[in-house]
Amino acid sequence: MPKRGAGALSSIKERITQRLVNKLVLLFTSIIVLVVGSLTVISYHIVENESVENSIASTTNNLLLVNQNLEDYVQEMGQLALPQLRYNEIMSAILDEDQDYSSQMVIDTYLRSMFYSRNDLKAIYLYIVDKQKYYTVSKEANTISVRQGFNEDIPDQDWYESAVDSTRNQAFQSLALPDTEIGYPLETEDCFLAYHRVLRSISSREPLAVLSFYYKDAGRQEIMKDIPVAEGDHLLLLGPDDVPFYMDDQALYARMRQAGMLDQIKVGENGQFTWQDGDEKYLVNYNTGEHEGWKLVKPIPYRSIYETATTTRNWSYAIGGVFLIVAVILVTLTSNAITRPLDRLSLQMKRFSSGDFEAEAPVKGNDEIAYLSRHFNEMVERTNDLINERYKMKLAEKNAILKALEAEINPHFLYNALQAISTQALKREMFDMADMVDALAQTLRYSINGKEMVYARDELSHIERYLGLQKARFGSRLQVQYQWEDGLLDLLIPRLSIQTLVENSIKHALENMPEGIRIVIAAELQGTQALISVSDNGPGMSPTRLKEVRASFDEEWEERESGNIGLKNLNTRLKLLYGEEAALEIRTDASGTHIKMIIPQGGGSRV
After folding, report:
1. What subcellular locations does the record give (predicted)?
2. Count of CB atoms within 10 A of residue 318's CB?
3. Rounded distance, CA 33 to CA 163, Å?
4. Which of 151, 394, 414, 470 is the most exposed place for a label (fewest CB within 10 A)?
5. If DSSP codes are grouped into helix, strand and coil, which group holds residue 248?
């Protein structure tokens, strides 16, 4: 499949580049695409960086101003909870409220005055510690009511313990988290914060009562309304201990906390950092209050920040595409006007190359193309006679070759004659002779079948017949062993390639060894290469002879010597069929000669 795709791509490339007009169009189109693409990419990155910087600057200033208002809002809570000048009166009323009705009225008036002073309070509770009793003021049916109740579980509440243990005698309780316990019979769906203030005895510093203020979410909304939240943006309001008092996405807060992102927020600073949340990448801006340490955190998706840059880039691509189409049309028209005379000249040159010696190119104008056409016509006129004469000489040469071939023995006639001899030998019961003649006939037929590439199994069958004839000559002096992998029997190899290597062993080893030799024919797959080798245990080659054989592989074919023609011929065929990846390697020493033929799998056009 990759080869087919590469071939199709190569074919398309060839069709595009075979005409000059296509080359010119391709050249100018590439320049236009490069310029427009480069400008678009550069402008995109510039706008992208500016978008990030503007987002950081605007968000930082916005969070700073809103957080200052938020801290003022929180400080007002603390000021409201302090009895100030009426402290002794309030403390006395708390101590005597169960025995003195006027003390109850003092508490009632005190709670009402605080409730009336603000419009963002849902309710106020005054919990008397030693009596486990509480007073509450809230709005019921358009009237402000003060009620009493008892609850012995209040000291077990987390917010109570935090307020009592606080050195500042106060605690902020978030109502944004689900299932938050408050200990009082109050619905807090529309509240976001509870502020608890501990009132202590001046003499003993023991807690006498706890004031609890429950603030409506409308107050937070009024303060944070100046923070723009676009689609995909998020906003978190965290207390000094990173407890969320507001979050538009609880799951996002949980992931940020789990990833340790909240630990990067520094007290008293403005800043930002990048956070990767799955497939979404955020620019997290934050501001921490200088006094109370309240934190505003705004994660903004980078895709929102880059939206302007992306829109600009898309428009640039659209405008560049229109510009490219117009430019291609203009370039095509101009290129055709330039290349049309060249096309006419090319047509006449094709006619001339195909044997039409009367081809003549039209000449118009005095430019370079006209000059070329004029000289082409002169060349045709001057070479017409020479080409005709050369053509006649070639015909005469071919006729001479055909007549010489007629004088040679027809291989097919020889093959048929050998078959007739084999038949007569069988009739006379000369079976050994018949087998030899039949093997010779099959060998001759295989040698003249005209195929350049054959399967390895066919080549090995041919080698068997060839070695059978050689064994009739050398007898037991010739021993052959095969080490051929079964998976390589269907490998396509050059015809007579293995025979060439075997002949080399017989000629240079067996004929020089009276006691005989052993020839090993082997094949194995190593990586992407098939390694075919023929080894013998003959006397080997001398270093001088080995150097001559290897040097002959690098010589031009016309410079070959007859002594190396077999191996050089095989090496040349391998290079032509498979390219430079194929090779013929020779290793020799006193123990014998080993010749290895390297064939790349899939490396040649015919493999």
Report:
1. Cell membrane
2. 10
3. 69
4. 394
5. coil
Phi/psi region, residue 300 (left: phi>0; alpha: psi -120 to 50; beta: rest), is: beta
Q: What is the dihedral of CA 74, 77, 82, 83, to 10 degrees?
A: 160
Q: Phi, psi at residue 54, to the nearest 5°?
A: -65, -40
**Residues 6 or more apart in contact with residue 226 via CB below 8 angstroms:** 62, 65, 66
Q: How many angstroms from the chain centroid is the CA of residue 351?
A: 50
Name the strand (E) or helix (H) holding 7: helix 2-17
Contacts of 564 (CB under 8 A, 6+ apart): 548, 549, 552
pLDDT in tens, 348-359: 777 767 666 667
The CA-based angle 94-96-102, given to 5 degrees, is 95
Q: How many CB atoms are located within 10 Å of the residue 211 CB? A: 24
> Mapping DSSP to helix (H, G, I), strand (E, B) and coil, where does residue 218 land?
helix
Q: Which residues does 437 contact at the CB level (< 8 Å), separation at least 6?
A: 418, 421, 422, 425
Q: Which helix (H) or strand (E) covers residue 44, if one does?
A: helix 20-81
Ranges of beta strands (E only) in 262-357 are: 270-277, 280-288, 295-301
Tokens for 425? 């030998």
The mean pLDDT of 447-461, rounded to a whole number, is: 80
In 3-state terms, what secondary structure has residue 270?
strand
CB atoms within 10 A of CB 230: 10
Q: Tokens 């005597």 appear where?
A: 96
Quickly tell me which residue has 């937070």 as its tokens.
Answer: 220
The answer to whether the beta carbons of residues 302 and 281 sit under 8 Å apart is: yes
b/e map 373-385, b = 16+ CB within 10 Å:
beebbeebeeeee
The span from the CA of 56 to the CA of 287, in Å, is: 12
H helix intervals, 117-235: 158-165, 217-224
Q: Which long-range contacts (CB under 8 A, 24 or more apart) does 448-454 make?
A: 448/411, 448/412, 448/415, 449/495, 451/495, 452/494, 452/495, 452/577, 452/606, 453/492, 453/493, 453/494, 453/495, 453/577, 453/606, 454/492, 454/493, 454/494, 454/495
Q: Is the pLDDT of residue 60 over 70?
A: yes
**Cα(118)–Cα(218) distance, rounded to whole angstroms?**
12
Q: Which residues pair with 535 in a beta bridge?
A: 520, 594
Enter the tokens of residue 270: 């403005």
Instruction: List phi, psi (to 5°) of 522.
Output: -135, 155
What pTM value is reported for the model? Answer: 0.50
Helices 456-474 and 497-508, axial angle in degrees (round to 10): 20
Tokens describing residue 154: 């209040």
3-state secondary structure 468-509: HHHHHHHHHHEEEEEEECHHHCCCEEECCHHHHHHHHHHHHC
